[in-house]
């Protein structure tokens, strides 16, 4: 199959036809939204109006975007708020080098604007930008010396380890091993920025684990908690919350878990 794809990519006409087919069908097939079929008539009506006003749009260049007309802009509240929160804290510390393990790559890219970043993941990120270097390695076996890291982040990562979702080995103790590695490499006075789903503790195989706050504090035994924030089940962000007061309600909300965002520090 990969050989066939490479062959198509080398044929301009076939490549353009394949891309057109992907763009035309993706609202239905790519997003698994059969309701998109009901939106195509409006697409063609607006195309007709566009052309009647002098606009030029070839059929070969059509790109139906049928679900972007919303009342307000939407965000993934977990990834949005954790990135803002962690970026603010890392910027304030003015560290010369920061280690990130497996976080969302846009966040990693933004960090390179304020410090040198070493990104570690089992799926290496091959990019060429200033202040960036990448290592292909596992969070359960970090290629870092004991007590050598002064600043580290791993956002929305720990909960996946050992569930096989991203190609890592199946391991019921994967998150425990990951947390132990972070504790091991953190230097005296060093900080680790961690986020995980919080709520009713459970394993949602092979998607993720959900933890209680007490679970996370136990996982990172040996580190002090400096600060905690959270996104609740309704998507609302809460800054500087007290760990002992956190409660995620499952009633009346679309989600049944929230996000805990933690700043841990090793005692100097």
How are helices and strands ordered from N to C? HHHHEHEEEHEEEHEEE
Low-pLDDT runs:
none
Please give the number of β-strands. 10
The major sheet is characterized as: 8 strands, mixed
C-alpha end-to-end distance:
55 Å
CATH fold group of the largest domain: Rossmann fold
- CATH classification class of the largest domain: Alpha Beta
> How would you describe the shape?
globular
Helix proportion: 25-40%
The total of helices stands at 7
Structural class assignment? alpha/beta
Number of domains: 2
Q: Kindly provide the radius of gyration, computed on alpha-carbon positions and rounded to a whole number of angstroms.
A: 23 Å
The CATH superfamily label of the largest domain reads Vaccinia Virus protein VP39
Percent strand equals 15-25%
CATH architecture of the largest domain: 3-Layer(aba) Sandwich
Strand order of the largest sheet: 3-2-1-4-5-10-8-9
The whole-number mean of residue pLDDT values reads 92
What is the topological layout?
Elements: H1 2-9, H2 12-30, H3 40-52, H4 77-93, E1 97-101, H5 105-111, E2 116-121, E3 132-136, E4 149-155, H6 174-185, E5 186-199, E6 202-204, E7 208-210, H7 213-219, E8 224-231, E9 237-238, E10 257-265
Parallel strand pairs: 1-2, 1-4, 2-3, 4-5
Antiparallel strand pairs: 5-10, 6-7, 8-9, 8-10
């Amino acid at each position: 199959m990969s050989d066939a794809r490479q062959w198509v990519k080398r044929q301009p006409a076939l490549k353009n036809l394949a891309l057109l087919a992907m763009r035309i069908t993706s609202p239905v097939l790519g997003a698994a939204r059969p309701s998109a079929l009901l939106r195509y008539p409006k697409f063609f009506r607006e195309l007709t109006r566009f052309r009647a006003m002098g606009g030029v749009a070839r059929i070969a260049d059509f790109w139906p975007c049928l679900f972007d007309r919303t009342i307000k802009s939407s965000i993934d509240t977990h990834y949005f708020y954790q990135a803002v929160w962690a970026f603010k804290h890392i910027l304030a510390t003015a560290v010369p080098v920061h280690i990130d393990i497996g976080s969302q790559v846009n966040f990693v890219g933004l960090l390179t604007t304020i410090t040198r970043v070493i990104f570690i993941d089992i799926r290496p990120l091959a990019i060429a930008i200033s202040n960036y270097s990448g290592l292909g390695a596992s969070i359960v076996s970090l290629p870092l010396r004991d007590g050598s890291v002064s600043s580290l982040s791993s956002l929305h990562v720990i909960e996946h380890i050992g569930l096989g979702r991203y190609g890592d080995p199946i391991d019921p103790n994967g998150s425990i091993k990951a947390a132990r590695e972070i504790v091991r490499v953190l230097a005296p006075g060093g900080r680790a920025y961690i986020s995980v789903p919080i709520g009713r503790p459970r394993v949602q195989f092979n998607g993720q684990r959900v933890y209680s706050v007490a679970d996370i504090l136990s996982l990172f035994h040996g580190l002090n908690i400096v600060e905690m924030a959270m996104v609740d089940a309704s998507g609302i962000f809460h800054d500087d919350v007290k760990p002992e007061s956190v409660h995620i309600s499952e009633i009346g909300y679309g989600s049944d878990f929230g996000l805990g965002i933690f700043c841990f520090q090793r005692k100097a």
